[in-house]
Write the structure tokens for this entry.
Amino acid sequence: MNDQNPEIQSRYHDVYSSWKRDPESFWLECARDIDWVSAPVNAFDKSMGAYGRWFPDATCNTCYNAVDRHVENGRADQVAIIYDSPVTGAKRTYTYAELKQEVEALAAVLRDHGVEKGDRVLIYMPMVPEAVFAMLASARLGAIHSVVFGGFAAHELQTRIEDSNPKVIVAASCGIEPSRIVPYKPMLDAAIEHSSKKPDACIILQREQHPCDLIDGRDFDMAADVAAHKSAGTQVPCTTVKATDPLYILYTSGTTGQPKGVVRDNGGHMVALNWTMGAIYGVEPGEVYWAASDVGWVVGHSYIVYGPLLKGCTTIVFEGKPVGTPDPGTFWRVIDEHKVVALFTAPTAFRAIKKEDPEATYLPKYDISSLRTLFLAGERADPDTIIWAREKLSVPVIDHWWQTETAWTIAGNPVGLGALPVKLGSPTVAMPGYDIQVLDDAGHEVPAGTLGNIVVKLPLAPGNLPTLWNADERFKDAYLAEFPGYYKTADAGIVDEDGYVFVMSRTDDIINVAGHRLSTGAMEEVLAAHKDVAECAVIGIADALKGQTPLGLVVLKSGADRDEMELEKELIAAVRGEIGPVAAFRTALIVQRLPKTRSGKILRGTIQKIADGMEWKMPATIDDPAILEEITAALARRKIGATAA
Ligand code: COA
Ligand code: AMP
């Protein structure tokens, strides 16, 4: 355990300095681990795009690097994917050779429906291996996939269809939550019906737990079509794309209800992710790497699919939860059974296990000696959870900080280079690729240890977003405009005198619920659309399990005489129906008035501090201080947040 043996020298400082001295040579060297169609000569062209583009002269194919090259280089019989599904009882493995066969056959199906380089393929699937096949099949054709998380409802799906305009949608008939089956097809049909953009075809994975009806001429049975191509032995060569061509679009919450389509390129993404597998996660080809997340999130894209497969590892597609499928020993069972060396999950997952089994009584039933490191990300890792996990698992617990936009670690503790001492509450230090600075609101650098806006000096690292899909101006406005020369992370925090980063909170309206990134603006749009609501505010309040949960405050239209409970039920159902169950929106409080500044800005931050029982100051610009007393009383009446104590 390196963090307890600081005398073990980390190579981090040398590697970071070598990157800083000459970033282009650093990344060109890393690029040698990728198989290119034409290898990069130049690492970076600063004249391209919003801030420059990585590997402008190279060509490649990501599927080739994640699949074919391993088949050709001695890993054909190594397991590439382990599918472990405690919610269905299914377990299957796919070797790299089998993975190639599945991907090639599905690519042939997509090609039958006209999918070509640059076309979009939208994927709406739960945690089944076919979701990974679909991503890789799209990449094989040089198409651009866009995966939509299964916990989103029809409206969210519709906005993504509208924005990405997919030629084909690949979907499953259902997802499976521990408490219920989630039929996907009605949501898919509704989303397509309400979208002005229609796909040419939908390829449907029929699951035996809940098969669905197929629409004649539009929907096609995935299993039958894939089987036909497998028996015909159809070959689909990997399409050569530019390193700068998009591999995928992943929509993430923005400050309005309209999600942002984060674009990922092919070349820089491969180079960076492949580097992280060794340097940050410390894993070797052939080892079993498990990211217990979902392919609908960036963690799933980077570390269930692309990172481990580019590296030649075995990855696990886990369709279950940390608790309740069937018990809080599931993670230990998976580690034991599949000999996992590195586990990556969100702190919420460990808080859930700790809550159900505080003494970790399920742990001794399993042999988890294969596990070398636990990695946490997606939300702030609270010290209690880190300490608990470290004690119970007897392995280093590594927090690291990144975003959908970056695809990989901005600040972390690079186990592969030799871990640095851990400071609880900090995801450790800037990774090569990132010159992290902290600026005040006027854009001036603040002294070490001072809270401010965390920014990254441009250019961004390979693999980070070059732009937003069809929205270059929005990209510049959202990320580059406020602090010229820097990328705004929208996280506030501190860098201390040792270079350790502390990420404290978001500077925008994004909240983090159980490691899921959600926009309170999007929830406000749903509440505001209710016929009886005059105005509203949604804030994230502290939650012991999920980190944060959303709280809605609504003011009724004059004359709207509504039973509070009934209205609350309607509002909860509206958010669930429009955004999805993953929003975990369970409380809508009716208040007389909302506190505002004299210029009419709702004082969301102050309400949040009151709800969380934090110290707060009366904002100088408040219009009517009495409203805060009303809010405090309303929270106390419902025993919400800190007022519950
Ligand atoms: N499809 C459909 N519904 C989904 C879903 C999916 N893929 N994922 C979650 N939901 C639903 C849940 O069933 C729940 O529905 P309910 O309101 O009917 O109970 C709702 O969305 C909220 O889900 P969640 O916030 O995840 O809470 P939970 O109580 O179901 O589970 C945990 C709690 C801690 C077990 C769960 O949040 C978890 O595993 N967290 C780990 C975080 C994680 O993997 N983050 C990914 C980024 S690394
Ligand atoms: P997402 O894009 O869903 O990965 O969410 C990114 C956001 O989650 C970041 O901007 C942070 O606000 C938060 N986040 C992710 N990882 C961490 C971490 N290790 N510590 C603190 N916050 C984190």
